[in-house]
Design goal:
This protein is mostly helical. It has a single domain, classed as Arc Repressor Mutant, subunit A (Orthogonal Bundle). 49% of the residues lie in helices and 9% in strands. The strands form two sheets. The protein has a two-stranded antiparallel ribbon. Helix 2 packs across helix 5.
C-alpha cells in the first residue's frame, strides 16, 4: 500500500513534469500541426489509424465516451479535414472513420511528438540503468492499470483523516481510460 506522502509526492511530480515542464496539455507548443487538438481528437485519429476496419461504436467503447461526445469530436475532425466518414464494409448500417491525407500527416506528427516527449523524459535520467528501470516500472504500472476491473484498481488507500478512496475514475466518460489495452482496438 502506498503511503499518503508517496501519493502526494508522486502527484506533485506528475503535474510538474507532465503538465508544466513537458506541456502535455498543450501539444501545440511542441508542434503547430497539433494546434487546437484535444486528447479525444488524438484518440480518434490514433484508433482510425491502428484499426482500419472498425465501427464508431468500437471507437466509443475504446475511448469510453458517450455517443454524443464522440459525434462532436468526429464532426470537429471532419470539419478540419482530418477524417471522413465512410460506410463500414462489415455492417452497412454503420460507418467508420477514415484518416484523410491531412489526418494521416497530423497523426504522424503526433507520433513524432510523443517519441520526442518520451526521449526528453528518458534523457532526464543520467544513466542507462536508471532509464531501463524507469521504463520497466512504467510497464509494470501499465499492466496493473489495464482494466477498471483490474485488482490493482480495487484496493483502497487511506487519505487525510483516515478516509478511504477507491482507485477508479469517477466518470465513465473520462478522456483518460484505464483499459486501452483491452477490448475493441486494443
Amino acid at each position: 500500500m502506498a503511503s499518503a506522502r508517496d501519493i502526494e509526492d508522486l502527484n506533485a511530480c506528475i503535474h510538474e513534469v507532465l503538465l508544466f515542464r513537458l506541456h502535455l496539455v498543450r501539444l501545440d507548443l511542441w508542434s503547430d500541426k497539433l494546434e487546437n487538438l484535444q486528447y479525444l481528437d488524438l484518440g480518434v485519429l490514433s484508433f482510425a489509424e491502428l484499426k482500419a476496419e472498425h465501427t464508431v461504436r468500437e471507437i466509443r467503447d475504446f475511448l469510453e465516451v458517450p455517443q454524443g461526445t464522440l459525434t462532436s469530436v468526429i464532426d470537429r475532425l471532419e470539419k478540419r479535414g482530418l477524417v471522413r466518414r465512410a460506410v463500414n464494409a462489415r455492417d452497412k448500417r454503420s460507418y467508420r472513420v477514415e484518416l484523410t491525407e491531412q489526418g494521416a500527416e497530423v497523426q504522424r506528427e503526433h507520433r513524432r511528438v510523443s517519441r520526442l516527449i518520451s526521449r526528453k523524459m528518458l534523457e532526464a535520467l543520467p544513466t542507462a540503468e536508471e532509464r531501463s528501470q524507469f521504463v520497466e516500472l512504467f510497464r509494470k504500472m501499465r499492466s496493473g492499470l489495464e482494466s477498471p476491473l483490474s485488482p490493482a484498481l480495487s484496493p483502497k488507500f487511506g487519505g487525510k483523516g483516515g478516509e478511504t478512496e477507491t482507485l477508479r475514475p469517477k466518470r465513465s466518460d473520462s478522456p483518460f481510460p484505464l483499459n486501452r489495452g483491452k477490448g475493441a482496438g486494443g
